[in-house]
Amino acid sequence: MGLPPQLTPEQRQEALLKAAISRKRRAEVKFKIKNGEFSIDTVLEIAKTEDAVAKMRVKELLESLSGVGKVRAQSLMERLNISPTRRIQGLGRLQIKQLREEFMKSEHAIKPGKLLVLSGPGGVGKSTVAKKLREAGDFWVSVSATTRSPRNNEIDGKDYFFVSDDEFTRMINADEFLEWAEFAGNRYGTPQEKVEQALLLGRNVLLEIEIAGAKQVKAHLPQSVLVFLEPPTWEELVARLEGRGTDSPERRAERLKLAQEELVAASYFDVVLINDQVESVVRRLIELAHN
Ligand code: ADP
Ligand code: 5GP
After folding, report:
1. Residues with C-beta less than 6 Å from any ligand 1 atom
2. Domains of the chain (ranges plus CATH)?
3. Longest Cα pair distance anywhere in the chain, in angstroms?
4. For ligand 1, what atom is nearest to the CA of residue 120?
5. Atom number, ligand 2, closest to the C-alpha of residue 144
6. Distance from the CA of 14 to the center of ligand 1, in angstroms?
7. Residues 6+ apart with CB under 8 A from 22
8. Contact 127, 208 (CB under 8 A)
9. How far is CA 7 from the centre of its chain?
10. What three-state secondary structure class fits 84?
């Protein structure tokens, strides 16, 4: 084995400078991959002509791609037989082809659905609107868990999952809720897993929940759209609650008192819609999901 070449101080200085420029270029490329400006295809093309980019480690390239963390990068490299220290310039033709195919797939991956949260005072028409949306098929409407007793016409698993107080507490402790809140003496919560699955499968999701819960959803998922449903007038809200005929006069008085407090919250919401016609509210919500 020959001795390593001896560099003059000037050559050493020059080599250090060149290495620093290469590192800077790789950092710049990684930044552009992270913010979506460069796809994996673009980087593989640049690496054909730029030495600095050709020397980037494949691991670094993969981990910079949005949605690819350390775990996915490692398992992908194992599957494609790429050693952990391999640089782009060391990739074989087959590995390049396989990498391209892999990310072509994810570039065409399903676009996640939109999450719309519908709130508003009791009796304004939230469940009527939610039912129509479910029938229209544009939304997957989440079914909440509640400790409230079923009303006459309500079906377990369709309108709510009616659960005991102990079961609700168990669900909170097991972190099964996206949000939960207490309302008029009962607890209500949105089961998290099904909502996440539906969104990942590209379904638009509707939650019909009260205001404290809506705020929790926004805090967890800022991309969600909070919609507040208002009655055309206060008198109409009173008439709707009476017309529904599901509450005793005492319970109705309690709900109306709560409704007064709830109406104040409208300003917190992204969108306010007046429920004069159910059909036009349904149309607006479908438009919001497709925007
Ligand atoms: P919420 O779920 O907000 O408590 P509901 O959906 O149960 O309210 O509606 C309360 C009552 O108002 C129901 O009897 C329903 O049929 C009626 N309702 C809902 N929307 C309208 C509307 N746009 N015009 C007239 N009545 C409505
Ligand atoms: P009701 O008893 O009339 O069915 O519902 C009372 C309130 O609880 C309504 O405002 C309804 O939107 C809300 N609600 C229903 N499910 C949930 C839920 O999962 N989470 C929260 N925070 N509120 C809910």
Report:
1. 120, 122-128, 240, 243-244, 275-278
2. 9-108 (1.10.8.50), 115-290 (3.40.50.300)
3. 98
4. 3
5. 19
6. 77
7. 51, 52, 55
8. yes
9. 55
10. coil
Ligand 2: which residue has its CA nearest to atom 24? 209
Question: Which one, of 260, 213, 261, lies nearest residue 237 by Cα?
Answer: 260
Which amino acid is residue 126, in one-letter code?
K
Helix H or strand E segment including 279: helix 278-290
Instruction: List CB contacts of 129: < 8 A, sequence separation 6 or more.
Output: 118, 208, 229, 275, 278, 281, 282, 285
Q: What is the pTM of this model?
A: 0.69
CA angle, corner 209, sides to 213 and 276, nearest 5? 135
Which pLDDT tens digit goes with each residue over 90-148?
999 999 999 988 887 665 456 788 999 999 998 999 999 999 998 888 899 999 999 99
